[in-house]
Amino acid sequence: MGFFVDRFERFDEKDFGAFAAKKRASNVYNMERMAIAEKLKLLGEKLKPVFTDRGLNVKCGTSDYKPSIFNGHNVEDAWLYFIRSDEEQRAILPLIEQKITLPEMIHDAAEHLKHSILFVRIDSGMVEAGLRIYSTAWLDVMNLVQITRNTWECAKLLDMVRGLGTDFKVRILPGNNVSPGELKEEPLRELERGIFEEKYWIRITAEFSMEKMLAETDALGVMKGIFSRLVPIYSFITWSRQNDHLSIVDEIRREKIAVQTGVADLRKNDRVVVLGGLFEGKRGVVLDVDAKGFVKVLIGHVTVKFEGNLLRKTDER
Known about the structure:
The protein has 317 residues and is α+β, with helices and mostly antiparallel strands. 38% of the residues lie in helices and 21% in strands. The chain has eleven helices and twelve strands. The chain has helices spanning 13-17, 30-52, 86-99, 102-107, 138-149, 151-162, 185-189, 191-197, 210-215, 219-237, 248-257; strands at 58-62, 78-84, 117-122, 126-134, 169-171, 177-178, 201-209, 271-274, 283-289, 294-299, 302-307, 311-313. It has a seven-stranded antiparallel beta sheet. Strands 11-10-9-8-12 form a five-stranded antiparallel beta sheet, with no helix packed on it. Strand 8 and strand 9 (283-289) form a beta hairpin.
């Protein structure tokens, strides 16, 4: 039983009002936002069987209701999200750490920025529910990129998204907001370019205005309907050892035993091209070379670690 409420029934005007502009940066309103977080957790308990009954091992979390450095001291909304279980996160952490540098992981500290998420979000004017992947959630984003490189897999994903119906909006690239039926193959093919050029949310979401949600008598049923349609897509694109389009474990094993060559010739600010692996053909700028032979390279806005033998200096931009 919660401190504020003991079950989720519906959203009300107080829930939306907690995120009025005048309240967002003030700790005075923490209790109001705490009540929303508690209500979202109760909603999460009701929704979790939608995922577990379909074979997903997920955990439920909520965003911080207090102004802090991680939300810019401005609480504009509240999130309920479902991501990999702690057990699965521990298993994949070494894989992520092989590729994503520590400063970038600290900058994007919130766990829902590191994984594919199924979520409900409420702000002062609407409720949003759906599937999102932040463009720096490396493991899941690159798994999706590999899917889009495969003609058959890309077509299958396109069919799955187009079958969602008119309740949803889809964004694969910045500015590319369409209904599922309007989604074309080109944005999927351009995804790899997009994620290196800009940080943004890839998303498939349904939005409900405050007025519509206040009039809804079965908010729980609406949310269950949304997620029952999205779970197959989430499972199709999210990386797991059973859904490994990256062959990531094999790649890291190969990199560990590779002979390090050419590292001594690389210096900070050198321009390089990647010779193999998932980023083959990508060009970037050297940020650092450490004593163990790992090279940090800035590709677009993403910092990636490589073995030195996977890089070659180039004059081309």
